[in-house]
Amino acid sequence: MNAAQAENILNSDCGLGMEYPPTARIADGKPADKASWPWQSSLQVDGIHLCGASLIGSQWLLTSAHCFD
């Protein structure tokens, strides 16, 4: 994370995204800008997205059990 990304996250309101999510859910969804949903993360192996996770504390992420099967 660079200083500009950190500044964007630090200046955002906790729990409030930069825009409303698309109503169609994933089908016909829109790509999100980096740091537009600062509590959402991507669990990756070798740069490939496997699962999403939500920040629930300063050092804790919550994800689904199937992500580690």
UniProtKB/TrEMBL annotation:
TM helices/strands, residue ranges: none
One Gene Ontology biological process: proteolysis
GO MF annotation, one: serine-type endopeptidase activity
Keywords recorded for this protein, A-Z: Disulfide bond
Residue ranges constituting the Peptidase S1 domain according to the UniProt record: 26-69
InterPro entries per the UniProt record, alphabetical: Peptidase_S1_PA, Peptidase_S1_PA_chymotrypsin, Trypsin_dom
Protein name in the entry: Peptidase S1 domain-containing protein
